[in-house]
Amino acid sequence: VGSTVDSATLKRAIEAIHRDFDDEFTSEQQYKTMDNPAGKDEFRKSLPDNYLFKFFQEAQAAYGIKAWNDTELGLIKPRPLKRGTLKFEELPGREDKAQLSAKGLTTGQVRYTDDTQVPSYYGYLVLSTSATGKIKSIDTSAAMQAEGVK
Description:
Elements: H1 7-21, H2 41-62, H3 70-73, H4 102-107, H5 141-144
C-alpha cells in the first residue's frame, strides 16, 4: 500500500512471495520426463512472478504510467506466445447427430442400476480357528434374532 508501480516495487513483491512460499513448494514427479528431467518445478516456481509482472503491466496501463523498458525487466522477460494449430477430424459414422438418450439423461427419466431396488443377500465374515477343518454345522440362532433377518 502506498508504493509506486515501478520495477523496484515489483522486485520486492516477487521476493516477498518467494520468501513466503518457496519452502512450501513440493516437487511433482509426474512432470519429470526423458525430455525434461528437471521437470516443470522451476517453471511452476516462476508462475507467481509472471502473474505479478502482468498485474504491474496492467496497473501501469490503467494509471497512465510508461510501459516497461527492457532494462527494467531484468530477468523477468515475458515468454513469447506460441502459435499452434488445432485440427479436428470427424471419423465416418461419428457425424454430428442428436443423441437419442440426451433428453432422458438431462430430465432424470433414465433409470440407472443404482436407482433399482433389488432383493439382496448380506453376509458376515467369520474367521475360523482351524485352517484345515471341516464345517459340520452352523449355529444361526443368534443371527436369526437380529432385525431384518428372514
